[in-house]
């Protein structure tokens, strides 16, 4: 049986696409290799949002050329956004590549590999499924079979793909195509199946996830939704439908929303649906109106502040995280100071920061990339300094409080080092990472447990089970199922240099 391996670069969307590639390849009779070196088919699932990510692919292919030469039947596949962006060009530029497959063509991968195996030539398939959009569905383990592994506690579910925004810095509309939405019936059915198999938290995925509209018109208008507001969508209605139809779901998150669609109906959904945790990631990109205009973000700083303030007022204690680009063409020191002041004004508890990177096919290519690299780096460092101070103060405030943590897996940092052989980690409803000490003898995977916060680390919390949670927990069976590694969504703070 041929063995495959997948290496993933980039965002949650890519992580999700990789999971679907695992499913598609396994269904076609492939087995997962223990390591990339042992694989017969190696897939690189790529990201092209920043140039650095694309360079990573090119150096990885260079490195793998030797791996390929060792055996004639080895196959190298490039998938994801660089595949979509470059298509056939990749085959011409890098002879080690055999198959280039775009995000919408994942189901065709086994067929393309089959053609290659009978002597076919290297091939690129990068066609958007505009007429009949396909949304690949995870195959959760059957809940009826006691020998099958438990589903991961957290899962991604796609609700839409593509992007109709035209942010001047962003390559996504080019690599993912126009917006296409998935029927709400299908979304609910996938979430219900995941929950039946043991999943506790679902993150709805989409490039502008809150622009969602049901293509079959199957959703009633959500309370608070306005027929006249051009920013209104059916996202709040979708959240309400999931909450009502899948009562066993513990937490419902979403990423990435656009501030334009943070309308009163969505704020009301947050106020009324306990399944929505008290944390939202809301990319802002800049705190300067001049830069926001040139980025074509279609909101002002004041509008962003007003909309997020309405959300925080409706859901006391809700925390916000964001994405920010520094060094966009023409960004002055005053523009950057406005960004820093916005970070403090909103009080973000997490932040992904990126140095602006010129991308092909984007409107901003017409603008000179005139902020020197050193200035970009220095602004990014100041941005992280401001964000870490906010996060540090927030985490310290939580020491001594009781929180509910969804246990996602064994602690990656300390592995088996905890008392009793394991140390568990998970997330609070507000997305803080919590490491649970002294619970190694218990089976907490997928449980929502009550913990006392004992210490604040730089980016996370240290915690202990409360007496009540300890009494209610199951002992871990010796030789029983090993917890699967946690599938992470957004970290609370990302120190990425872009
Ligand atoms: N569509 C989503 C959105 O708008 O929030 C996610 C897009 S992207 C995967 C995630 C982040 O990458 C963006 O929010 C932005 O901060 C950053 N990004 C996108 N294009 C960039 C560029 N050309 N240079 C630097 N950062 C960029």
Task: Explain how this protein is built.
The chain is an alpha/beta fold and 498 residues long. It is 32% helix and 20% strand. It has 14 helices and 21 strands. Strands 2-1-3-4-5-6 form a six-stranded parallel sheet, sandwiched between helices. It has a five-stranded mixed beta barrel with strand order 15-16-17-20-19. The chain has a three-stranded parallel sheet with strand order 7-10-11, with helices on both faces. α12 (333-346) packs parallel to α13 (373-398). The chain is globular and about 65 Å long. The model is unreliable at 415-421 and 483-498 (pLDDT under 50). It binds S-adenosylmethionine. S-adenosylmethionine binds next to β13. S-adenosylmethionine (SAM) binds next to β13.
Q: Can you give keywords for this protein?
A:
498 residues; alpha/beta; six-stranded parallel sheet; five-stranded mixed beta barrel; 21 strands; globular; disordered C terminus; binds S-adenosylmethionine
As a whole number of angstroms, the C-alpha radius of gyration is 23 Å
- Broad shape: globular
Assembly context of the chains: single chain
Mean pLDDT: 91
How far is the N terminus from the C terminus?
39 Å
List the ions, cofactors and other small molecules found in this model: S-adenosylmethionine
Uncertain ranges: 415-421, 483-498
Write out the strand line-up for the largest beta sheet, numbering strands in chain order: 2-1-3-4-5-6
Q: If helices are DSSP runs of H or I spanning 4 or more residues, what is the number of helices?
A: 14
- Largest sheet, described in full? 6 strands, parallel
Alpha-beta content class: alpha/beta
**Helical coverage, percent range:** 25-40%
Proportion of residues in β-strands: 15-25%
Number of strands: 21
């Amino acid at each position: 049986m041929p063995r495959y391996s997948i290496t993933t670069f980039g965002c949650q969307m890519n992580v999700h696409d990789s999971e679907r590639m695992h499913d598609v390849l396994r269904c076609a009779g492939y087995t997962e290799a223990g390591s990339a070196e042992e694989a017969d088919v190696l897939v690189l699932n790529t990201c092209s949002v920043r140039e650095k990510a694309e360079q990573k692919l090119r150096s990885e292919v260079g490195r793998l050329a030797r791996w390929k030469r060792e055996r004639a039947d080895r196959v190298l596949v490039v998938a994801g956004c660089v595949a979509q962006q470059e298509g056939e060009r990749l085959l011409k530029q890098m002879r080690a590549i055999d198959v280039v497959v775009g995000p919408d063509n994942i189901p065709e991968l086994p067929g393309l590999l089959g053609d290659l195996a009978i002597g076919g030539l290297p091939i690129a398939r990068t066609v958007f499924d505009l007429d009949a959009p396909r949304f690949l569905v995870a195959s959760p383990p059957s809940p009826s079979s006691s020998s099958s592994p438990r589903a991961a506690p957290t899962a991604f579910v796609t609700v839409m793909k593509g992007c109709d925004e035209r942010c001047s810095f962003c390559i996504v509309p080019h690599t993912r195509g126009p917006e296409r939405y998935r029927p709400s019936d299908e979304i609910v059915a996938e979430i219900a199946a995941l929950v039946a198999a043991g999943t506790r938290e679902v993150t709805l995925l989409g490039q502008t996830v809150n622009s969602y509209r049901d293509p079959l018109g199957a959703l009633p208008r959500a309370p608070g939704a306005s027929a006249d507001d051009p920013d209104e969508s059916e996202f709040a209605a979708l959240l309400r439908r999931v909450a009502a139809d899948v009562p066993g779901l513990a937490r419902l998150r979403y990423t990435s929303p656009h501030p334009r669609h943070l309308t009163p109906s969505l704020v009301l959904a947050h106020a009324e649906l306990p399944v929505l945790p008290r944390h939202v990631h809301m990319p802002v990109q800049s705190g300067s109106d001049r830069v926001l205009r040139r980025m074509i973000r279609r909101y002002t700083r004041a509008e962003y502040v007003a909309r997020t303030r309405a959300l925080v007022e409706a859901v006391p204690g809700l925390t916000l995280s964001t994405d920010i680009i520094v060094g966009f063409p023409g960004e002055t020191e005053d523009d950057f100071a406005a960004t820093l002041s916005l970070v403090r004004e909103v009080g973000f508890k997490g932040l992904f920061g990126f140095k602006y990177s010129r991308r092909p096919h984007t409107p901003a290519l017409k603008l000179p990339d005139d902020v020197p690299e050193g200035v970009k780096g220095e602004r990014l460092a100041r941005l992280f300094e401001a964000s870490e101070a906010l996060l540090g103060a927030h985490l310290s405030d939580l020491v001594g409080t009781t929180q509910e943590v969804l246990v996602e897996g064994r602690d990656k940092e300390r592995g088996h080092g905890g008392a009793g052989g394991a140390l568990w980690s998970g997330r609070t409803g507000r997305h803080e990472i919590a490491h649970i000490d002294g619970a190694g003898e218990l089976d907490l995977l997928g449980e929502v447990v009550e913990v006392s916060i004992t210490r604040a680390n730089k980016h996370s919390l240290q915690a202990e089970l409360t007496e009540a949670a300890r009494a209610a927990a199951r002992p871990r069976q010796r030789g029983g199922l090993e917890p699967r590694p946690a599938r992470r969504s957004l970290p609370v703070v990302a120190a990425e240099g872009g």
